[in-house]
């Protein structure tokens, strides 16, 4: 066993060990022997559960060119010059909840008596890209039952014989650990005999048993916001978040002579979804949702539906904490709005800042961002996005603050500027707040009628008229606002 290095086809450096799936302890040892420098691998991380995920679905992500090729071929083939079709394990809420219930009873003797969603905790540790709704590879995600893929591979590639699975490699990137499983035809046993068979070993990171893969994750958190309290069986916030390596399992389906693995592509709604672009990407080929739907309708003209958008894992659980991100062209308006929501003088006319509060059993963090005129360079925008991301693990909703004064002139220009800075995908998680301090109900109605059509097209009913004068603060109005925000996150 010895670590080696190479460049992959995307130009990234890989460190790898063949024929082994190394746990983190052994991987650290190999890294030190190789004199590998790493800002993530050698760090000590907070205590967290060691779950066992039973996974019966696979996913494959691609961009426009890949989607066109897959549709045209009626299946999956390897990129030029390669012999492997790559898939990843698809781990969602069901797999996470079931893994939590399987945590060893000797460590959690009262586990079976614990109540439902409100006390679930394992999902809070699922912060790595292995669990995210976003993609680093493209806007389109294929998801198929594992058995459907393996059956097609057996019948089309293995002449009806069961495929063989082997421990292929442990691959280390800057922050990512990938455990690869090689799947091949039994006719090629001699060719791949140097790789150990994938056996049902209780200490293995990945095994195949009873029709599913069992993944014993070594590092399910990319960003560690929590540590695990075993006595209380709960996730507790760490004082300072940490970055660490994260792991996942990938399947390499071996094919030869440019063979195509064909699957049932009749109904896109059964297998195809849309992914937002991740903060880190390996490709530049991404589409917005409208472009993605147009492409799918071109390739499946008989289909009359629309792509389902992959949603964050957190949206499958009760919303107990959230972040409100104040944005807008006027620093005074966003600051006044933040002060009114929080009930105190927390923000001033410009610059970033945050304040925390608790309302209706909901932990709320209000984040103020620089006004749009201060976000003109890529560096300024990146700094603001990083500030939002690193401000806590909760899902965020943008509050786009626009004054009712001159609403007709301000609205379109402000929305366009918002989309330019935060990308149009941010609008799906945005509520527009039309702020005022002395307008009558009649004046408000007249002003809103002028922009109703534009609002309906852009944000539907995700807007609210809000008095942002601190002295006029209405706690019920704040509760109404938070209730509307929770609807955006699927919390009601």
TrEMBL record:
Taxonomic superkingdom: Eukaryota
Keywords: GTP-binding, Nucleotide-binding
GO MF annotation, one: GTP binding
InterPro entries associated with the record: G_AIG1 (IPR006703), GIMA/IAN/Toc (IPR045058), P-loop_NTPase (IPR027417)
Domain AIG1-type G: 319-492
PANTHER family reported in the protein's UniProt record: GTP-BINDING PROTEIN A (PTHR10903:SF184), GTPASE, IMAP FAMILY MEMBER-RELATED (PTHR10903)
Family: Belongs to the TRAFAC class TrmE-Era-EngA-EngB-Septin-like GTPase superfamily. AIG1/Toc34/Toc159-like paraseptin GTPase family. IAN subfamily.
Protein name, per record: AIG1-type G domain-containing protein
